[in-house]
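Workshop exercise sheet. Pairs work together: one partner reads the sequence aloud, the other fills in the structure field after running the prediction. Swap roles for the next sheet.
Pair: D.N. / O.F.
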Amino acid sequence: MRIITTLTLLLLNVQLLYAGFFDEVAKSNSKTERHMLARQVIFRAQESINGSNINAFTSELHELAERHSDPILAGLEKIAQVEVMLRQTPRPDTLIQQSLKQVLDIAVKHEDDMLLADYYHYTGLQYNRLEKKREGLEFLLKANSIIQRNGTCSSPSAGPYIYEVGVGYLQYQDYHNAKKLITQALTCEMYLMKNYMRAHNTLGVINRKLMLLEEANKEFALARSIAEQVQDSTWYGIISGNLGYNYYLQSKFEESIPLLETDFRLCLKSKEWASATHAGSTLAEVYLKYNKIDKAHQLFFSLDTIWSKFGYPHIKSSYYSAKAKLFKAKGDYKNALLFSDSAQHYYNADVEAKNALVAKQAEEKVKAEEYDANLQLLESEKKSQILLRNAIIICTILSLIIAVQLIVRQRQRHKQNQQNLQASKEQLQQYVDSLREKNMLIESFKQQIESLVEASQADKEEILARLQNFTILTDDHWNEFRQLFEKVHKDFFQNLKKRFPHLTQAEIRLIALSKLNLSKKEMAEMSVVSVDAIRKTSQRIRTKLELESEKELESLIASI
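Structure field:
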């Protein structure tokens, strides 16, 4: 089936290149059919039409519009121009806006729903390219509303238009709606093989976000085979990297290596620096798992020259983390500590950025959904003008919409709270894991220092002083730890103080660390005290709380 689809699309593109662009349109005697065929030609010509041949392309459409006195074809002529202008660099934004205004005027004057959908869709794309994502999604939703009302795949525009709405939901991290819409888009005509390729790759990304890794593997494999067919080396590399990273997440390291190597090589060639850095950092970690230190070291010769060419903190975090592991494998604990700190810094920066983005996107998503609901309500009100008796029905619908909106908002808040709680748990776990790794590095580093018999006492003291700066859960870091802890265990410290007001700060810290199921050795390392001091503090707590055993104390802590 896929082979037949591929051959059909290639044949249609060949016909487009060797015949008049709109020959089939010119032969039709039906106005509706002419409009449908013209849209199909515009979509199929997306990648073959550019600034150099757009005039020849649109002149045929212009002649047809004049010959048939057809204003809708004139509107589609403007749409074809906008399609090309949106891909130009620099982008002629003023011309795009003028052309879209003309399309809107024609659509409103002649009450043509599908031309109005074209206006909404391309206005949404224009807003997206201007980084106005909320406005972009609002217009894309308007276009989708018209498409869905007329029947999902009844319009030639359905597939591409529904796909863009799905991408909009993906940007707002609404993965379930994004998956639903892009799956729906793939049931319609997508015209170009590259459109199918992008859709399957996007579905792979969504399934990975939903942790449906096997489903994601299938989508990435399908997208990769299409990229190979159309000979798009850049996309072939990117999709190979997506599949390779999936295998990495599944611990299928042997299978991930050739895919990540392909992604790294092709993205370097096409100057896709962010993708190259992500692929290279992941690949380096895989090499280190197989103790291929030299290969990982060679990889960083390339990575060190490109990692600073972009500003994505999550990719910089993966770069620093991989480099820290390289230095650790080489026994260079000093540099391992430094790069581990940098990785943690960019990880925290990424978490902060994502938290801010999630809050903003959640707010904008609600506004976009309200706008879509209002649009549907306005359409209902327009119909109510025909017969007065529909007023009662509209009031009922309005009440239901309000009720549904309240339920949806409540569910969204609950879902958002659950996501925030999960994110806080991951942050706290990351924090604790980071402490554990640093303490291991510090212990190894201390052992190295003790072996430096010939080093001066001043050098040793200086190094030990620097080590002290890496110690976590000092007074300076306690507030940061406490904030993370409270996100996961809400009101823990308040409830603890209310029940046991006579506890000291040291005892409260020990109880908090016990809540994380840390060993006494780990608690001692994090608190910069001896294990014996931890035991004595624990005994003192039991005495104050009149508890006889450690198990009773653990049960009490678990109940708070």
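Discussion prompt: Confidence is low (pLDDT under 50) at residues 1-19. What would you look at next?
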